[in-house]
Amino acid sequence: MRREQRWTRLSEWRVMGSLQRFSLCFSWKRILCIFFLPVILSGFAPRVKDKEDLIFANAQLQPAQYSMFNWSHLTPLKLTDRSVGLQTESRVGSKPYFTLGGHKFLIFGGSIHYFRVPREYWRDRLLKLKACGFNTLTTYVPWNLHEPQRGKFDFSGNLDLEAFVLMAAEIGLWVILRPGPYICSEMDLGGLPSWLLQDPKMILRTTYKGFVEAVNKYFDHLISRVVPLQYRKRGPIIAVQVENEYGSFAEDKDYMPYIQKALLERGIVELLMTSDDAKHMLKGYIEGVLATINMNTFQINDFKQLSQVQRNKPIMVMEFWVGWFDTWGGKHMIKNAEDVEDTVSKFITSEISFNVYMFHGGTNFGFMNGATYFGKHRGVVTSYDYDAVLTEAGDYTEKYFKLRKLFGSVVAVHLPPLPKLSPKAEYPAVKPSLYLPLWDVLQYLNKPVISHTPVNMESLPINNGNGQSYGLVLYETFICCGGSLLANVQDTAQVFLNEKNIGFLGDGIKKLNIPKIRECQLLRILVENQGRVNFSWKIQDQRKGLTGSVTIDNIPLNGFIIYSLEMTMSFFERLRSATWKPVLKNYSGPAFYLGTLKAGSSPKDTFLRLLNWNYGFVFINGRNLGRYSIIGPQETLYLPGTWLHPRDNEIILFEKRKSGSYIQTIDEPKL
Length: 671
Known about the structure:
Blueprint: E1 12-13, E2 19-20, H1 28-42, H2 51-60, E3 87-89, E4 97-100, E5 103-105, E6 108-112, H3 122-132, E7 136-140, H4 143-146, H5 161-171, E8 174-178, H6 209-226, E9 237-241, H7 255-265, E10 271-277, H8 281-284, E11 290-295, H9 300-309, E12 316-321, H10 337-349, E13 353-360, E14 371-373, E15 377-379, H11 398-408, E16 434-437, H12 438-441, E17 449-451, E18 472-479, E19 483-486, E20 489-490, E21 492-497, E22 500-506, E23 511-514, E24 521-528, E25 545-546, E26 551-552, E27 555-556, E28 560-565, H13 569-575, E29 581-582, E30 591-598, E31 606-609, E32 615-620, E33 623-629, E34 636-639, E35 648-655, E36 664-666
Parallel strand pairs: 6-7, 6-13, 7-8, 8-9, 9-10, 10-11, 11-12, 12-13
Antiparallel strand pairs: 1-2, 3-4, 4-5, 14-15, 16-29, 16-30, 17-28, 18-24, 18-28, 19-23, 19-26, 20-25, 21-22, 21-24, 26-27, 30-35, 31-34, 31-36, 32-33, 32-35
C-alpha cells in the first residue's frame, strides 16, 4: 500500500477467491480531511494539456491494494535455479496449478508480435506490458517472413526474434513461443510461405510429403535459434505451442503428433501446449501435451469441454480476445473495457492462467495482411489495432488502466511506473506535384516473363524460382476482336484496352464484355493479391493472379507478357531515375504520385489521411505502410516517427483508380 494513502484498509482480493470486506474506521477529523483534501490539492496539481495526459496522470495516482501474489523473485534475471521449468501440479483439496522453479505461478500473458511493431519501439511496448502487471509475453513466429525464399532465412532487423525474446527477459517477462508452422494471426496464408503453393498437389497443414519436408528444413533453422532461449538454458521461454488451432482444421490425425515430435527432436524441452476453441478442442488435442482454450468471454461450459480432454491440469486460456480485427468494407470492431476487466477478474479469482490477445496489435505493414472468406473474399485492413489494450501506436487505453488497477490489487509489489506517452504530430499537408502512369513505369520493373499462357503469381519464374508472394501482376496480350472475356482472377483485376479502363473482374465476377474493335489492341489485366485467406480449408486455394486460361468467346488467348509488381525497396530506388510528369488536375487509371513530407528536425509518430484518394498503397522513403481504401472502415494509416527522416521525406502513392489532392497528417487515428 502506498504510504501517502490516508485510509487504513481497502477491499482486498483473497487468494484465488472471494472478496474480503473490511470496515473502515475513521474519526470525524479524518473524514473531513478526506472530503476537503482533493479540493486543497487541486490547486497544486499540474495542468494537463489533453485528455490522454489526464488519463495518464490519473493512472499514476491509483492506490495499490493488499496483494495475493508475490512473483518478485520469479523473473528471468532473478531466478537462478533453472532445474525445474513450468510444470503442472495437482494436490488433494486444491485446484491444479502451474509451478515455475517449484513455486506456484499464475500466467498473466499478453500478446505482442515483433513483426508488427517497428524494432525501435519494441522496448516501449514491452515496458508497457510489464508496467500493466503482466508477467509473460506471447508471440507468434511467421514462417512466410522468416523464409521468403526456400532456404533463405531472414532474422535481421524487425525480424530479429532472438533480440525480441532477450529484451523481454531483460525487462522481466517470461515468454510463451508460438512457432507454428501455421499461425493464423490474420496474416497472409496464416503465416505460411506462398512458395509452398508452387506444388500443384500441395496439401497444407498435413503430413503431405512436400509440406513436412519444407517444415523440417524451416524448423532445422528456427528451432536451433530457439533452443538456447529456453528456461532450462537460462532463457525466458517457459512454454512452446504446437501449431495453432488445428482442431478447426483437423484433416490429418498424424499431423499434430508429427509437429510435436519435430519440436522435441530438435531440442525443445519446455512445456508443450495446444490452442483451440472449445468446439474444436477434442480434434486439436495431442496426448501428453497441455490443451489450452481460446475464448471471447468467461464461459463455464467451455471449461467443461476442456475438462473432458484433460483432468487434474490447470486451466490456461491461450487467447482471451479483448477485441477483434477489421476487414475492408466491414465495420470497426470494438469491445467494452468493463467486460474485459470483468472477464480477467473472473480468470484470476478462478485460478485460471490467461493470455490477452492482443495486448498490442501493431500494424500489417506492407502486404502481410491476410483475408477472410465467408462467401466473399475480404482482406484484413492495414491496422491491426484490434481494439487491444494498447493502441496501434502504443498509446494507453481504458482497458489498460482497468487491467493495471486490477493487477495492482493482486500482486505484492508496486507495479513499475508507466512509460511516458509517445508524442504525436501533425505535419503540413502534402500535395503531390509529380506523377507517373503505370504504363510509363514498366521499363523500370524487372524483366517481364514471356509465356504462351497466363501464369499465376506463385508460379512465375522469378526470385530464384520462388515466384511472387505479394503485390500485383500485369498481364498483357494483343486481341483483334471483341466479345465475352472469361477469366478467373484472384483477387481483383482492372481490365484495360491499351490505357482505357473497360471494367473489373474478381469477387465472383469472371465475365466482361469487350467492345468491338477495328484493329488489334493491347489487352491489359492488372491483378492484385488483396491477402491470402488465413483460416479454414480455404487456405488450399490461395494462388493469386490469373489462375487458368483466359478466353474471348471461348477461344483461349495466348502470347502473354507478364510484369511482376512487388513494390520492393529496390524498385523505388530505380524509380527515382524516372522522368516524372507534372500532376494533371484529374487522372484516371493506375499511377504513382510523388510528394515531400516535411517532418521538421525531430520526427514524431503521425497518421496519414487520404480523404480524396480512392484505393492504393503508401510508401514512405521506400517503406510500404500498407493499403488504403475509400470503403473503410480504416481512414488513417499509422506512420511511425522512427521511419521518418529529419525534414524532407519522400512519399509515393500508388493510386489504382483516380488521382486525389492532398495527403493530410493528423495526430490521432481514425479507424
